[in-house]
Amino acid sequence: MKFLLIACLGSLVFAQQGPADLQGPGPFVRDLKADVLRDFPELCFSSTNFRLFLENQSWSLFPFCGKAECVKSGADYIERVHDCGPQPKNGEACTIANLAELQRNDTILEYPSCCPKYVCPDGVTLEYPTQEEIKAEIQKQNQAALQAAKEAAAAREAAGPQAAPGTA
Ligand SMILES: *[C@@H]1O[C@H](CO)[C@@H](O)[C@H](O)[C@H]1NC(C)=O
Ligand SMILES: *[C@@H]1O[C@H](CO)[C@@H](O)[C@H](O)[C@H]1NC(C)=O
């Protein structure tokens, strides 16, 4: 299940910008502004594996289930992300046909093999979160990350004087 959760969080992160087609299960493709390093303005930087990529090269987004591609658009670079898209809201009504495969810990499945394949009983249709629901969930996660960073900074500050007993 850990892998599914990661895949789910990953798709939320990557849903942050650009239009997404939410009509049904994949393929989900969206364009993000590429990460570019100051010293390498002609290359896309991948923060998942800390490597630089040339125009038209693609790379795996492992541990997320997806792949990205470095695309030049005018003077700008775009990271074109392909992933499994949002998790269905009523996924528990269905079974995941490739669950055993997804849960194996001795193989790394690349996109699109790492996407869950839902099989639903007759009459059950998968429902996907709306664009607004996805945005709200991302905002919630961003707030939580910001709050955690602030709390960590406050804890470091509070621990500061104790960490230097000689000065007390
Ligand atoms: C990248 O792909 C596009 C579209 O296929 C092509 O027009 C362009 O020349 C390619 N760029 C490089 C550097 O291969
Ligand atoms: C991987 O799976 C095997 C078999 O299910 C299990 O024995 C092993 O502890 C697992 N390893 C990790 C790192 O989870």
TrEMBL record:
Q: Which GO terms describe its cellular component?
A: extracellular region
Q: Kindly list the places in or outside the cell where this protein is found, as annotated in its UniProt entry.
A: Secreted
Domain annotation Single: ranges: 44-120
Q: What InterPro entries does the entry give?
A: SVWC_dom (IPR029277)
SMART domains under this entry? SVWC (SM01318)
Q: Where is the signal peptide?
A: 1-15
Q: Supply the alphabetized keyword list.
A: Secreted, Signal
Q: What is its main location?
A: secreted
Name of the protein: Single VWC domain protein 1
From which source organism is this entry? Penaeus vannamei
